[in-house]
C-alpha cells in the first residue's frame, strides 16, 4: 500500500505548496476585479477561469488553501493539545473518578455535532475563521482523548511499564516518557484524518457563512458564490469543489498509507 | 437486562442534564439583552421592563434555567422573541422537513451501503472490491453540499426531473413531498453511505474469518449460504453502531443541505434565529438536536444488549 502513501502525499503536498507559494506570488491579485473578463471558463490567461467579478479562480484557490490549511491545522492542534493529555491522564487513572469524568465528558461533546457547536459559537461571538477553528477544534478533543486512552490502556499492561514503575517513576512521568512515544504513530495517522475532516468542516462552515468572512478567501465561500450561478458558470463550482475533493482525498490516502507504513499490525484492527 | 437498562437510563438523564446546563450557560454568555434588541435604541425604560418580565427575563439565571428545562419537559419551549409565537410550534413545523429528510437519507445510505459492502467483502481483493473501495474513498472526500449543487445542476437544471429547491409541503401528497426531498436526501446520504459500506465490508471480513463460518462451510453450506445465514447477522453489530451515530450527522448535516435547496427545515430556522438574535429558538433547537443524538445512542445501546447478552455486563 505504498502507492496510497505516495499518491496521497503528492496530492497533499500540491496544496500545501500552492498555499505557501501564494504568500509570495499568485497569477493575479486574488481581490482584483476585472468585470470585462467575468465568468470566463478556463483559458490561457486564466488557467481556471474567472468568477462573476472577473477575479482569477486559480489565485483565489491558492490563497483559499491557506485558510483551509490554517483552520484545519490549528483545529487539529487544539484537539491534540488538549485531547492527548486528557487521554493519557484517563488511562493512567483507569477506572477512577477522573477517568469516568473524562470519558463521560467525551461522550457529551460527541453528542454535539460539530456543526451545532459552530452554530452555538457563532450565535454568540459572531462568524469568523477563529470561531470556526474553535468549533472544529473542540470536536477534535474527544477524538484524540479516546484514541490516546485506548492505546495507552493496553500499554499500561506491558512489562516495560512495570519496569519503569519498579524503577520509581510516577504515573505522569511514565505517561510522558514511555506511553506517549508509543502512541505517536497512532496520533500522526489520526491527525491526518482529522486534518482532512477539518478541511471539509471549514468548507461547510464558510459555505453557510459561519466561517472565514470576506475578504479572506475560502473554498467554502467560493462555492456559496457559485451556487446561484451554477447553471451559467458551472466551472465556478467545479474548481473549488475539486480543490476540496483532491485535498481531502490526498490526506485520507496519506493517512491510510501512513498507518500501513508505520504499523502494519493496525491494518487488521482498524475499521 | 433491567439493571442494564436502568443504568443506561441514569446516564442518559445525566447527559441531558449536563448538556442543558452547558447550552444554557453558553447562550447566557451572549452579549446583548433580547428585550432591548427587540424594542430598539429608543425604548422607554418602562416598556423595556414590561417586556423583560413578559419574556421572563427579570428573574435570576437559576430560576430561568429551571423554567426553561421544566418547560421543555412539558412541551413548552417558551415564546420566540421575534415572532412572539410558541417555539414548539415553529420547531414542529420545521421538524416535518428535517426529520423525514434525515430518515430518507438514512434509508438511501443503508440501501446503497449494504449491497456495496457485502459485494466488496465477498469479492475481496478482486476488481469489484477495489472499485467499490475506491468509490468510497471518493465518497468520503466529496463535500455533500457541493455534491448537492452538482445534483441540482444535472437533475434539476439540465434534466428537469426535480425542482432545484424549495419544499412543496406534505399537504401536496406524500409522494410529491418525497419527490421534493429526493435530491437533498441523496446528497446527504453520499458520505454516510461511503462510510457505512466500508464498515459493512470490514465487519463482514472479520466475521468470515471466524471458526463458526468454517463450521458452516464444513456442514455443507455454500459460501453464499454461509454468508447470508451466519455471516451477515454477526457482522451487523458494528454496522448498527455506525448507523446510530450517523443519524446525528444526518440531522446536523441537513442544516447545511437545507441551505443548498432552500428547504424550510430546522437549519434555516436556526440561521434565521441567529441573525434575528432570537436566542431562545437557537437554544431550543440545539437542545433538541443534542437530545435526539443522546436518545438515539441510548436506543442503539439497548438494541445491542437485547441482541447480544454479552454486552450487558460491560457498560
CATH architectural type of chain A: Orthogonal Bundle
Please name the fourth-level CATH homologous superfamily of the largest domain in chain B.
MetI-like
The number of distinct β-strands of chain B equals 0
- Strand proportion of chain A: under 5%
What's the gyration radius of chain A in Å?
22 Å
Q: Write the H/E string of chain A, N to C.
A: HHHHHHHHHH
Number of strands of chain A: 0
Number of domains of chain A: 1
**Helix proportion range of chain B:** over 70%
Give the uncertain stretches of chain A in residue-range form: none
Taking the alpha carbons of the first and last residues of chain A, their distance comes to 16 Å
Number of helical regions of chain A:
10
The main β sheet of chain A shows up as: none
> CATH fold name of chain A, please?
MetI-like fold
> Whole-number radius of gyration of chain B?
24 Å
CATH class assignment of the largest domain in chain B:
Mainly Alpha
Termini gap of chain B: 12 Å
In short:
Chain A: It is found in: Cell membrane. Chain A has 271 residues and is mostly helical.
Polypeptide structure, described:
Chain A: Residues 65-255 form the ABC transmembrane type-1 domain. Chain A: Its main location: membrane. The complex is a heterodimer of chains A (271) and B (315). Chain A has 271 residues and is mainly alpha-helical. In chain A, helix 1 (2-24) packs across helix 2 (57-92), helix 2 (57-92) packs antiparallel against helix 7 (171-207) and helix 6 packs across helix 7. Chain A has one domain: MetI-like fold (Orthogonal Bundle), CATH 1.10.3720. Helices cover 74% and strands 0% of the residues of chain A. With 315 residues, chain B is mostly helical. Chain B has helices spanning 2-29, 34-39, 45-54, 61-73, 87-122, 127-141, 144-158, 174-208, 211-218, 223-261, 266-275, 279-307, 310-313. The mean pLDDT of chain B is 83. Chain B has 13 helices and no strands. At the A-B interface, helix 3, helix 4, helix 7, helix 8 and helix 9 of A face helix 1, helix 6, helix 7, helix 8 and helix 10 of B.
Amino acid at each position: 500500500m505504498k502507492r496510497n502513501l505516495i499518491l496521497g502525499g503528492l496530492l497533499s503536498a500540491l496544496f500545501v505548496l500552492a498555499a505557501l507559494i501564494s504568500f509570495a506570488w499568485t497569477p493575479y491579485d486574488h481581490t482584483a476585479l476585472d468585470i470585462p473578463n467575468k465568468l470566463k471558463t478556463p483559458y490561457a490567461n486564466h488557467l481556471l477561469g474567472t468568477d462573476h467579478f472577473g477575479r482569477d479562480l486559480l489565485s483565489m484557490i491558492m490563497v483559499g488553501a491557506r485558510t483551509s490549511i490554517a483552520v484545519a491545522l490549528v483545529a487539529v492542534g487544539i484537539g491534540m493539545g488538549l485531547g492527548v493529555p486528557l487521554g493519557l491522564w484517563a488511562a493512567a487513572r483507569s477506572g477512577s473518578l477522573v477517568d469516568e469524568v473524562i470519558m463521560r465528558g467525551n461522550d457529551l461533546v460527541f453528542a454535539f455535532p460539530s456543526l451545532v457547536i459552530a452554530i452555538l459559537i457563532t450565535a454568540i461571538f459572531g462568524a469568523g475563521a477563529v470561531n470556526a477553528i474553535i468549533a472544529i477544534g473542540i470536536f477534535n478533543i474527544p477524538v484524540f482523548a479516546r484514541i490516546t486512552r485506548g492505546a495507552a490502556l493496553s500499554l499500561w499492561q506491558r512489562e516495560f511499564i512495570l519496569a519503569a514503575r519498579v524503577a520509581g517513576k510516577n504515573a505522569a512521568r511514565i505517561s510522558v516518557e514511555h506511553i506517549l512515544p508509543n502512541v505517536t504513530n497512532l496520533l500522526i495517522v489520526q491527525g491526518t484524518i482529522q486534518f482532512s475532516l477539518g478541511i471539509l468542516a471549514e468548507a461547510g462552515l464558510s459555505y453557510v457563512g459561519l466561517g472565514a468572512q470576506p475578504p479572506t478567501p475560502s473554498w467554502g465561500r467560493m462555492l456559496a458564490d457559485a451556487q446561484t450561478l451554477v447553471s451559467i458558470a458551472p466551472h465556478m463550482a467545479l474548481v473549488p469543489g475539486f480543490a476540496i475533493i483532491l485535498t481531502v482525498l490526498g490526506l485520507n490516502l496519506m493517512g491510510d498509507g501512513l498507518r500501513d507504513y508505520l504499523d502494519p499490525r493496525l491494518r487488521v484492527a482498524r475499521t | 437486562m433491567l439493571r442494564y437498562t436502568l443504568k443506561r437510563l441514569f446516564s442518559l438523564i445525566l447527559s441531558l442534564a449536563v448538556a442543558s446546563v452547558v447550552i444554557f450557560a453558553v447562550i447566557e454568555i451572549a452579549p446583548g439583552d433580547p428585550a432591548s434588541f427587540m424594542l430598539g435604541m429608543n425604548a422607554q425604560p418602562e416598556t423595556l421592563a414590561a417586556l423583560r418580565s413578559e419574556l421572563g427575563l427579570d428573574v435570576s439565571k437559576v430560576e430561568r434555567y429551571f423554567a426553561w428545562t421544566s418547560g421543555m419537559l412539558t412541551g413548552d419551549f417558551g415564546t420566540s422573541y421575534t415572532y412572539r409565537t410558541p417555539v414548539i410550534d415553529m420547531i414542529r413545523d420545521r421538524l416535518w422537513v428535517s426529520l423525514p429528510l434525515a430518515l430518507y437519507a438514512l434509508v438511501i445510505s443503508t440501501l446503497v451501503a449494504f449491497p456495496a459492502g457485502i459485494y466488496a467483502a465477498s469479492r475481496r481483493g478482486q476488481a469489484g472490491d477495489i472499485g467499490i473501495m475506491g468509490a468510497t474513498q471518493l465518497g468520503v472526500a466529496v463535500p455533500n453540499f457541493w455534491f448537492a449543487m452538482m445534483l441540482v445542476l444535472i437533475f434539476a437544471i439540465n434534466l428537469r426531473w426535480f425542482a432545484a429547491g424549495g419544499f412543496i409541503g406534505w399537504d401536496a401528497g406524500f409522494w410529491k413531498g418525497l419527490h421534493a426531498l429526493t435530491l437533498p436526501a441523496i446528497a446527504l446520504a453520499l458520505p454516510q453511505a461511503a462510510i457505512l459500506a466500508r464498515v459493512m465490508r470490514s465487519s463482514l471480513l472479520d466475521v468470515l474469518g471466524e471458526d463458526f463460518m468454517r463450521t458452516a462451510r464444513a456442514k455443507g453450506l455454500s459460501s453464499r449460504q454461509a454468508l447470508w445465514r451466519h455471516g451477515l447477522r454477526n457482522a451487523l453489530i458494528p454496522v448498527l453502531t455506525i448507523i446510530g451515530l450517523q443519524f446525528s450527522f444526518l440531522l446536523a448535516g441537513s442544516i447545511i443541505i437545507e441551505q443548498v435547496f432552500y428547504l424550510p427545515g430546522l437549519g434555516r430556522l436556526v440561521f434565521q434565529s441567529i441573525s434575528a438574535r432570537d436566542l431562545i429558538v437557537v437554544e431550543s433547537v440545539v437542545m433538541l438536536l443534542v437530545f435526539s443524538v443522546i436518545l438515539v445512542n441510548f436506543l442503539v445501546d439497548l438494541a445491542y444488549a437485547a441482541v447480544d447478552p454479552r454486552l450487558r455486563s460491560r457498560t
